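Fold this: NAD/FAD-dependent oxidoreductase
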Amino acid sequence: MARLAIIGAGLSGLAAAWRLRTQPIEVTIFEKSRGYSGRAATRGKYGARYDHGANYIAPSSDRIRTLLFDHLPTDDLVQIDGEVWAFDGDGALYEPDDQDISEKWTYARGISTLGKVLARSIPAVKQTETRIDHIVRSDGAWLLTDTDNVRQGPFDAVLLTPPAPQTSTILQTSADTARDDNTRDLLTGLAEAVGSADYIPQFSYIFGYNRRIKRHGNYYGLVNDDESHDISWIGFEHDKPERAADGENVVVVQMSPAWTASRVNADPDRFMSDVKDLASKVLNADLKRPEWYDTQRWRYSMPVSRADVEALEPGKEAGLFFAGDYVAGVGRIGPAIETGLDAGDQIRQALS
């Protein structure tokens, strides 16, 4: 039976494994963290559940709708009511003329449930808390070495799905330790192709209140659509069904790439007061004295450009495949999953 290694248990890697679930391919998934879903992440605090990365799922194609509503469990799947309004560089709110009326979905227990139900639906070996450092070409197959210097394999193919800067580092480290010139040249070229995708950072702040935060409109979320404000997104997580107790409000504030970039190596807690002041002005509401708060640094929040996917083609002959938002060129759940489904099809053809 052919063997496949998937590096990364984000949604693109899990989608590829799901696509291959009926194939005679032994799949092993290596994930550096403890859980699944990548930036489709959820945390809980004081009884509240909140999504501090991706905000919601917008079914972007028939394939995504079929996956969500026909193949995966829907018990916990819920639709988000309320509109998404915009605000400008001065913080003034308005209903955009091109109001996004697409459906917005999530899970009652958090958006990370999507990764969990995908993981439960696939007959793959999952090794969490395992960070892959580099890969080695050996006798026509691939060996994976983790940061504890434990070697895994051999595998007939490898699918790499971490954010482009991390995938590029794995490939370049692999090139530096390659045993022959052809493998070294291949891996170097792939590292450059993946590394051509540019990413932006983002700090997320979450504030919990035992009171109602007033709103001046029928919106669930606010987006700075001209990218001229220090805040990119403000969301009311308690609008999502079953996320907080009655009377409790949970507000997520995600900062702009420009604001975050100059602070990305600092502790996000240092700027909490500034963020509350900025968000209070946009909302024209009092965000002082939250009952609790949380922060998250997303060093590689989303791509703003696509990797050179044509330059990744030579990898296929050697059993190297790629999926993730850097292949799609946008930081959205639907397109990221699509790249995983496509990679699954490519791997099936290559290993059949």
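The longest helix spans residues 333-351. The longest strand covers residues 292-303.
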